[in-house]
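Researcher: I'd like a structural prediction for the single chain below. Treat it as a standalone chain; there are no partners to consider.
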Amino acid sequence: MAAVLAIPIKRIPLLYLFYLLGLTMCIFKCSRKEKTIALSTVNEVDEKEKEPEVLEDSLDEIAYLTKQFDKLLRKRRSFPVGRYPSRGSASRNPKPSDTTGDRTPKPKTFQKSDKCYECGGVGHRSVECPSRKNKSHKAFKVSWSDSNSEQFSDHDDENIALVASIELDEFFEDDDCDISMHNKCSRLVSASKSIKFPTAEVGLPQECESADMITTPEMEGKFFRAIRKLEPQLEQILDQHRPHCLVADLFFPWATDVAAKFGIPRLYFHATGLFSMCAAISVVIHKPHKRVLSETESFVIPGLSDEVKMTRNQIADAFKLDDEAEASKFWITAIECEKRSYGAIFNTFYELEPDYADHYKKVYGMKTWHIGPVSLADKEAEDMATAEQHQCLKWLDSKTPNSVVYVCFGSQTIFADSQLLEIAAGLEASRQDFIWVVKKERKEIEEWLPEGFEKRMQGKGLIIRDWAPQVLILQRKAVGAFLSHCGWNSILEAVSAGIPMITWPVSADNFFIEKLVTQILHVGVGLGVEKWVSFVDESLKREASVKREAIEKAVTRITEGNEAKDIRDRVKALKEMASRAVDEGGSSLSDLNALIEELRTLNRS
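Model: Treating it as a single chain, here is the predicted structure.
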């Protein structure tokens, strides 16, 4: 389930390093229903009959790798990572005809391609150079396979994620990614190593290698036991490849000790914001919820710079258990292991949560680097032709500014039909145009929609039943509000696009994030959801906890009146801060460069 990739780098852009360091998340986020990716270097003379992609110069491997990996990451963005529902479906990712890499796009011609790097001459490209004949050149090949395909690949039917090993020995001052600079880099080392997700060992179905495939509490427990069983395989990879750092998220607390065995610094990657991490740690340590008498009585989260009130109903079930419970032990262990790690990487920017960025460092004594919003660093990838052709974007371009409400609840939230019926009725009653992403296949009779709904909403509302290009949707001028489950990626994307939010927290860290949006940043309004539920809780699939009247009221509140204008002004200001953070000299890019330099210095010491 992992391909180990060793890359000599200079100053790789923000997006690339983040994914290189952070793709260990894919171990439990990427579904076998999407793509398996195998990376290898191949010899062009051995692959002539397959017409592989050949580099213009054998020393251009780094420039070529960067471009190819960018394309891989664009495909990864259509995987279920908590933002888009039904990502990577068969319609989005058709089965390839084979697994030899023929689906990989042809690399673009590099700049200065009129100069031959083979013989040093000019007037022809290196691929046309006579001196290339009878020579063996390396190409970087990407093998794609679909887990539903009979022609799977040489990697059996294992789900593959990516783990990166970063060489920090070669740094250069220029930023233009010129081929001549890449010629100074060390040669590319690529190796493939599989990590098999131990589904059978814990009694899970073979295909259950992704969190969004968990459907019962029993499966959830088995899934996390399977994650713990990855330790020996990761240890083998680290022993073999000795990367300069290991990045893993909080669901792999044992990774700290595994990395320490080899003297490798372990970095935590947090897929949530600084405020929600500060709030969660405070709840775990101080247990303020145990001093109230009922599930609905409020308490103040201690130690925060803002007075944030919650109820027992709004915190995760794991926080309410006794210290001896397995879930409680996990959180305590995760916090302790983070304190012993080298530091933590956050997909956020300092200006969004300055008090809690400082709090995390001072109170918990952690080194932190804020390198987001990552979605802003992927502007080119978001302009993919396939996404641009999506019908919803053309539909949005026909609408007036701020007139459309975008509705999406992420990849793991599955509402009851009765709840979907309430959402439809609330949107219709609000009289606002809308785009609604819902995980439902089209049927002849749509029992989850009011009778005649789609006919009445023709031209006014658009239902997307599959993958949706969320970042591009939010960037359209027509979008005036986002009804969200408060997943962190969704919130960051909304902030980055300057879109006000309607909050509907469901599970995980959603209720903490809602407090940030509505009470601290004041860039959204809440629906009044009062109870945290697990994604696998049957009540989520049976009950309609939010009524149509609340939805209509919230939509009206976020789109009309003085309050709506104030919210829009505040989120627009945050949008500008987010954009500056990832630009040259911005806080996030500076933090990223500081992290690279520190790892480089650490490697030399």
